[in-house]
Amino acid sequence: MPAGTTSFYFRTRKSLLHAVASRLTELDVADFSLMSELDNQSTQFIGTAGLARIVMYVNSEPWLTRARARYEFMLLASRDAELAAALDESGDRLYTLARQVVTQWHPANTAPDPALIDDQAIATLTFINGAMMTFVAGQPIVDSAEHLDRLIQGVIAGVAQIRLG
Asked: How many helices (H) and strands (E) would you count in the chain?
C-alpha cells in the first residue's frame, strides 16, 4: 500500500475517527488557550460578551466545519467510550470557560453559592450548544454577538431568579 494513502496510517475506520477526534480536541484546546491569553490582554473576550463573540465564530469557517465534525463525533461517542474520552478535554475546557463567565457575571463583592454557579454554567452551556447547533444546521437563531450576549445574560439571570426566588 502506498505511504500516501489513509489506510497506510490508519488501518481501521475506528483508528481514523479517533485520530480525527484527537486532532479536533487539540484544535479546540489551542483555541480556548488562545482565548484565555487574549482575555488577559484585552477586554474583548471577557465575560458574557466575550463568550458571545467566541460562540459567533462558530458561524464562520474554519470553525463551522469543526463544529459540524464535533457534533458528528458527539453522536458517535455515545457508542464509543474511547472516542468519548478523546473529546472530554474539549468539553471540560468549554465548561471551565462557561463557569468563569458566570462567575464574572456576579458582582465582585459577592460570594455566590457554588451550586448556583454550576447550574448557571450548565444552563449557559446548554443554551450556547443549542445556538451552535443552529449554525451547524444553517438556521442561525442569532445574527450578532450583542444579541447572543443579551440572551446569555438572560439565561444566567433566569437561573439565578429561579434558585433565589
From this structure: 7, 0
